[in-house]
Amino acid sequence: MKHHSLFKYLAPIGVIAAGIISAHAEEKPIIHDGEFEFVKKQHAQKWAAQDKEIEAKLANIREKNDGKRPNILYVLIDDVSFGQMGNRAMNYVMGIKTPSINKFANEGMSLMRMYTEPSCTPTRAAFLTGRYAVRSGIKEVKVALVGEGLPENEVTIAEVLKQAGYNTAHVGKWHQGDIEQAYPHNQGFDYAVFPLHQQVQLSLMTKECADANNMFGFAPHTQTSEFDLDSKFRPTGLVTGVEAVAGGKAKEVDLQPGEEWTQDHYVKMNYRYQKQTLDQLDKLAKEDKPFFLQYWPLWPLNFVNDGEENTTLNGGFHAEKLQKIDDFLGEIFTKVDELGISDNTIVVLMADNGLMYHYAGTSGLSELIYRGGKTNHLEGGVRVDAFVRWPGVVEAGSAAGDMVFVSDLFTTFARVAQATDYIPRDRVIDGIDQTALLLEGEHNGRRDYVYIYENDLLRSVVKNEFKMHLPAPGVPGAAAPVYNLYRDPREENSHIGMALWSGASFQDMVKRHMMTIKKYPHNKLGKGAPYEGIENLRPESIEAVKTFTSWQ
Amino acid sequence: MKHHSLFKYLAPIGVIAAGIISAHAEEKPIIHDGEFEFVKKQHAQKWAAQDKEIEAKLANIREKNDGKRPNILYVLIDDVSFGQMGNRAMNYVMGIKTPSINKFANEGMSLMRMYTEPSCTPTRAAFLTGRYAVRSGIKEVKVALVGEGLPENEVTIAEVLKQAGYNTAHVGKWHQGDIEQAYPHNQGFDYAVFPLHQQVQLSLMTKECADANNMFGFAPHTQTSEFDLDSKFRPTGLVTGVEAVAGGKAKEVDLQPGEEWTQDHYVKMNYRYQKQTLDQLDKLAKEDKPFFLQYWPLWPLNFVNDGEENTTLNGGFHAEKLQKIDDFLGEIFTKVDELGISDNTIVVLMADNGLMYHYAGTSGLSELIYRGGKTNHLEGGVRVDAFVRWPGVVEAGSAAGDMVFVSDLFTTFARVAQATDYIPRDRVIDGIDQTALLLEGEHNGRRDYVYIYENDLLRSVVKNEFKMHLPAPGVPGAAAPVYNLYRDPREENSHIGMALWSGASFQDMVKRHMMTIKKYPHNKLGKGAPYEGIENLRPESIEAVKTFTSWQ
């Protein structure tokens, strides 16, 4: 047993530029991770036979819909751990009511073991590219100017579907960076309305939050900064919400020059994205082409009372807004029904990672079931509620305990949209085609493992019920804690008796993963000047960029 | 603020003998705790009006059933925390399947906030007597000989219902002591089959568990005892399962003289109680009188593999048996249907306290949602799943977030059985009549508080969403941690901002409780020679009693 041998792989791998997009690369197989190939070899015949049945089923579904491929509506909620959506008992535990989400959950399949990355940017990148975020060079993106983002040579699901003839639209949180190549309308979306940054700026960096002491150090009126030399250390002049269409420039719409961002702006922004999603549904439903629409709301993140009367027993800032999101989603689902497109629309609702436990208390949401939350590799950080509704295709009221990773949606959406040929063949695609799971139900999943990263650091490896936390550098592999997730969902007892001996099998998995990386090295994070491609930059934003680049 | 004043009440109160049973004490009101009277005063008119409606409804239900009052089947599961029964998502978390329990849960009302005492004996006593166990002098009953138990002058729900004309039967765990007055057939049950002690003896003190090192120190073959002077410190000769009818003697049925207790005996005992419950249903359903049948299974407690092939993903000893209990309950519910008595039978299914986390790991069950488990006052110790099915009366698929304490079932069962007059009027009854909640649904509960004891020590006071942990003796009341249970279900953050200021209101609640105790002091624990009233004591049991009493 060579316990030490695997740890040399754990340092960030040298970044090598990835290849270009190879469109319509039929016949060439999708390149998957070593572990998937290892599992596939064990099921090759069965899966090949099943794939033929699935093709026939999909053709049959299209036939029923006059040849139109299914629309896809992808709703991604921010920072809500497993159990916090779609479960009546947990509603009672938290003192909130989410009847629309619960009803929706019962209309389709509950994916009981959906894994994400542990933070917003990586999960969204993993979905968009079908690849662990680390492969795109993507890490958590900070609140203020970074001059970084999703590289242009990554191929997003929007690009894949657009090439295959879909209309594509994005509404809400984006969080893939502040450089032009990273903007959604430059990454495959025909239409995009989104905040340039994320909710720390939008929901926390307000006068109201400073007054409530929920964001200290930012607002000059709550404390003096008499010794400051660097007036930009406390971010100012950040671009807020922008709107754009593919091929065009972005336009900031939420703030006028000289105007101060407030909680009221944030509330209005949330309502606006809701309205724009409804508007998009109205518009897209009428088109001949099928659509891919993603709605990524900003709520439940919220950190101060906004004057609306609370309606939950909980009263916490996030809990209140999670209930509000339920109202919003109720409207969305009703709209889909009213437009008569329910039967030919796949709706996926899920969260992007575990709860933002850093505000436990006032947020009203705290650890529930799994331990941990946003930013960490424990199940509480990466296990989320996920529901798929596709009436007449995905069994209503069903559930599946098969493992799914968020990037599997990339490959699965491509499959059901007949767009698989547009998936690039020059890079590793982590997304596994889970169409069989959706169409044939539980036990037809094709994944039994997931690697969990915190940014570019591999922190855990999950296989079936077992999860190994990688030991710190220098610590022998024999000391790696292994948990049985059914027996110990909170990952608290790693005694040897709790799981398979952690040695050979997990080491082999790490090796297969690292050797695949060696063969197909990670892409480089996109870099550029922040805020390019915005046509109406406010003077304070221009000033912010100028200062940001002044040291170089 | 007199923070210190309340703590003088916290020492165990001097025990004073309680009065005798005052049968048929109509007109005299039931004596409730001060806190209930305090709440009642705030709702007197509304409740009085509602009670009239409820009387009419109950009369109407009887009329529909040819004047027969409803049967009551009370199923009490051992050591399973909230969320571990009746919830599909949690099934997936734990890697088990409980379709029968989940189906049953959806056929009635889910009581989402059922509180118990934190251990088996106190919870069962609180149910049987309608009183906090501490009022009966009851504490946790140890595994071996104790010469203690439920006092004869306590009035159990079986006695109340029997006086009102019900047939009464008990099958399974009893755990109310090893003295004759405490036996179920001497506490109101016409028929009783039960183990004299509890599952530590039955499931842990076996050769198999000793070999597996799950119960060390007990079996001589797994370690020497060369320095022992006291051969009875390691219990031997304990009575196992007995059977009896009211007025008769108990007869041991599970073990022959000289025979050693084994895992196989335990398995058989579980199957036997299941069969006897089914037999009782067959028998009781045919009678003119309505019945009260309690089935208190021994499983899921189990600590070693019994040779049956495991069928769960979890594979843990308790997890496996929880799934087995699901099979058992499926049979029971089917039987109730087949007998044609479903519509006039109230079935309550719940657990007696939180999980036995002491065996987390091999048991397969660990903390889930709430923190803590059996033996402690945290929500994980005292919050359990509870479901009430009464077709046509209790709304199918409904849920209620109102607080309920296990003793409320005493008073509520008496009410629906028209047996309220037999509830004694000379002592405090903690059980609150929750018939309105069952018949009128959520928000019609009449409890917004509960006191949580660990044995005779008051450890927590709950009011609505707030929970105060009592500070240790000598610690100022201002330091008492208070939690908001919706925002912080795991009771981890007691910062002042998380809950109402802990001062006056909680202190008042403790005072009202203690002043009620002062007026109606606690009963004395029943005492006597162990094993009296057993007609076929084995020689080894006689020897055990002889040694037990030899020091006096």
UniProtKB/TrEMBL annotation, chains A, B:
<dbReference type="InterPro" id="IPR000917">
    <property type="entry name" value="Sulfatase_N"/>
</dbReference>
<dbReference type="InterPro" id="IPR050738">
    <property type="entry name" value="Sulfatase"/>
</dbReference>
<keyword id="KW-0378">Hydrolase</keyword>
<dbReference type="InterPro" id="IPR017850">
    <property type="entry name" value="Alkaline_phosphatase_core_sf"/>
</dbReference>
<dbReference type="InterPro" id="IPR024607">
    <property type="entry name" value="Sulfatase_CS"/>
</dbReference>
<keyword id="KW-0479">Metal-binding</keyword>
<keyword id="KW-0106">Calcium</keyword>
<feature type="domain" description="Sulfatase N-terminal">
    <location>
        <begin position="70"/>
        <end position="417"/>
    </location>
</feature>
<dbReference type="Pfam" id="PF00884">
    <property type="entry name" value="Sulfatase"/>
</dbReference>
<comment type="similarity">
    <text>Belongs to the sulfatase family.</text>
</comment>
<dbReference type="GO" id="GO:0046872">
    <property type="term" value="F:metal ion binding"/>
</dbReference>
<dbReference type="GO" id="GO:0004065">
    <property type="term" value="F:arylsulfatase activity"/>
</dbReference>
<protein>
    <submittedName>
        <fullName>Sulfatase-like hydrolase/transferase</fullName>
    </submittedName>
</protein>
